[in-house]
Amino acid sequence: MADSQYSVALVTGASSGIGAAVTRALRALDLKVYALARRREALAELAGEVGCIPLVADVNDTGQVNEVLAGLPIDILINNAGLGRGFAGLAQTTGEDIARVIETNVAAVLQVTRIVLPGMIERQRGHIVNMGSVAGLHPTGLSLYGATKGAIHLFGQNLRLELQGTGIRVTEICPGRVDTPFFDTALDDPADAKAFTQGFACLRPEDIADAIAYAIRAPWRCNIATIELMPTEQSIGGARITPVPQPP
Ligand SMILES: NC(=O)c1ccc[n+]([C@@H]2O[C@H](COP(=O)([O-])OP(=O)(O)OC[C@H]3O[C@@H](n4cnc5c(N)ncnc54)[C@H](OP(=O)(O)O)[C@@H]3O)[C@@H](O)[C@H]2O)c1
Q: How confident is residue 239, by pLDDT bands cut at 50, 70 and 90?
């Protein structure tokens, strides 16, 4: 049965991992779901499986995004498309990677939101869900990725204030490690990528989709502002004991 508050959703980064799981979950709520990503075949497969509507676009191409979203009455925006790079440390990160991660994880999120917001404000109905990360709330030793997700944290907090009185809700989802192809993009060596998700029970994309479905289905008076989800076997904090050279 469709949620009475909303009927149309847009999921960015729907071709894989968390975005695909969220698309499935929103379709299970009987919402019309536009699934946006660059990979046409993966979106077509998902559409065949759950009946979402594929939108092939690069979130970094604002003109293209404007074009594919023109006239769509989006009630729910899931700002999920994103990537990690620079996991070896900032000194080892290329300038191109810095630009690409900031563009995709921050600038594109603001652009897509800017495109969708006027319609939400006009209809006085909307829910924006931003995919943050525990790396945006706590130090995890990922300065580039953490900087972008930290920006998303304060983007959501400020947007919620800006939108007071419009009836539009803003939710931030902050997962710990989720078993998705994210790490294959983040790391060049497949063995390093595997090491991130093996040997302990990671979160699964469905866990994140369940949390988002909960936020969306909450009664209108209740804005689920931030959800932090961690694998039971992962914690933030503690000390890393690394010998440092002593001053002479
Ligand atoms: N996995 C984790 O441990 C974890 C933890 C916390 C937060 N997150 C966040 O969760 C979100 C989803 O990540 P995931 O784990 O599901 O990784 P994933 O499986 O690699 O999915 C990333 C998605 O983003 C899309 N995307 C990337 N760049 C894009 C672009 N320029 N234009 C359009 N779509 C683009 C990809 O689609 P195409 O390649 O088809 O375009 C893909 O669908 C990201 O924002 C990530 O930072 C992940």
A: low
